[in-house]
């Protein structure tokens, strides 16, 4: 199985915007090459996590090896390396692209170029990959292949005269795609004589065999039983099992330069075999690792607290388990005066955060209070020391600090031109700096802004979607830290400061935010037997205040007459609120209150 010459190997990935049909096309390739029998063919074979399937997004990338009998009479080994499609994971996207020589660019012929089409294709072009353009969904009545071809040419500068017109759903154009892969994607360089260097492009934790490492051999060869060194982590292991992915794991004895496969070596956690690391032979370590290893750094943090403090240990266990399989997740214990014991967790981005939260609740049955996400601030203290603050309540007092810097991102929004005004208004209101706007067709534009990440981790994406009726797509990229006039806004409930409600805001926005925040909290915190003051403060200065009136005997009394639907709504609201509450002093505060700061526009 491994005696294929490099000239008969093609390594490629598929890049596409979400929903443009990447998984459906991958299924078809597996089907047509008979890699997976019709009987075993589950829909969307490559997306095998439940959560992924439900959300219809690809999170973990995977690989599949296919044998293709081409029209030239030769059999080729095609390695498909699946790339995750979402913005949070662009680091993983670029790792998997490094493992390839070419990429299929899949664009929905009824939709056209979207933000992630552009972001992913730029990553591919940066790696000098050969691109095979594919216009998918040509079976749809709304498909406009000629218009979309022109769009791709204009936006990316890629010749589309030869683009494949395909329908992954109907199985149209699949043979043509396979032939194009053989013709256009270059074979890997035959570097089998060099010392082993292989790139890890994915890994996952298996309870029985330890971490399964997916890799591409760039130089040299690797055999079962070899002792390997992971160059970044400097750890060494003996390979217990080596194999290829077709797409189930099939053991082999040896893999050489250009091939893609997996190994197991009783590695305890994915942290020890991180994506992007270089595998070498312990007995023959090359001078340089493969380029480009960078640790994925958490950008967004939030607090996770069990509603029932008895669940703290269960939460720790659950996080430990998730961490085995997710090197990018970070967490450490956090003690909050208001919330008790919990964990401060770091994520690559918002989607990553949502997925982890959902898993904890779903797979581990934990009832959690989640605090509003925060970015990492860089604070220079008086005296020059620089510290990182990922928890607003820990921002040192003004007299102790010299300056505060916050992370900035570049956001590329693609939208029909009718929504340009709406997009710009949103970005302006989030402290954005306008950078550029470009029409790539008479009716579609890219709008580029630089924005503080903190303004985007709130409800930016939801707002963008609702203000453009779902027609805009976006992509973001971290560009560095900038100094700003930032202050900490504290919140007091019934006179007690609630550290988990503290937030960092721009000085110019502090009054507005404080005012709306206390109004929101007044709505969200259920009435109790006594009056509850809710206040927002900067330092010792109260800048806004509201009072939650004491409970009347019958909460439904205020619903006049027979307005049953309003009554129902109120009861539902109460039932929902009851589910997740945290007692802060004598006041029960519901989950929604901790997220109130994110929804100030509504
Ligand atoms: N009509 C039509 N629908 C298609 C075609 N290809 C895919 N679809 C549908 O488009 C939707 C999205 O397809 P997927 O293959 O899940 O898209 P994807 O790009 O893998 O999405 P992510 O995994 O989220 O990145 C599904 O409902 C598919 O059935 C096609 O050629 N024609």
From TrEMBL:
Catalytic reactions of this protein: GTP + H2O = GDP + phosphate + H(+)
One Pfam family of this chain: LepA_C
Keywords on record: Cell inner membrane, Cell membrane, GTP-binding, Hydrolase, Membrane, Nucleotide-binding, Protein biosynthesis
Gene3D superfamilies for this protein: 3.30.70.240, Elongation factor 4, C-terminal domain, Elongation Factor G (Translational Gtpase), domain 3, P-loop containing nucleotide triphosphate hydrolases, Translation factors
Protein family (similarity comment): Belongs to the TRAFAC class translation factor GTPase superfamily. Classic translation factor GTPase family. LepA subfamily. Belongs to the GTP-binding elongation factor family. LepA subfamily.
Enzyme Commission number, as recorded: 3.6.5.n1
Record GO terms (molecular function): GTP binding; GTPase activity; ribosome binding
Protein's job: Required for accurate and efficient protein synthesis under certain stress conditions. May act as a fidelity factor of the translation reaction, by catalyzing a one-codon backward translocation of tRNAs on improperly translocated ribosomes. Back-translocation proceeds from a post-translocation (POST) complex to a pre-translocation (PRE) complex, thus giving elongation factor G a second chance to translocate the tRNAs correctly. Binds to ribosomes in a GTP-dependent manner.
InterPro entries for the chain: EF-4, EFG_III/V, EFG_V-like, EFTu-like_2, G_TR_CS, GUFP, LepA_C_sf, LepA_CTD
Species per Swiss-Prot/TrEMBL record: Rubidibacter lacunae KORDI 51-2
Classification lineage: Bacteria, Bacillati, Cyanobacteriota, Cyanophyceae, Oscillatoriophycideae
SMART domains named among the record's database cross-references: EFG_C
Enzyme class: hydrolase
Name recorded for this polypeptide: elongation factor 4
Keyword Transmembrane: no
Family matches, as CDD domains: EF4_II (cd03699), EF4_III (cd16260), LepA (cd01890), lepA_C (cd03709)
Record GO biological process: positive regulation of translation; translation
Alphabetical list of NCBIfam families matching this protein: lepA, small_GTP
Tr-type G domain mapped to chain residues: 7-189
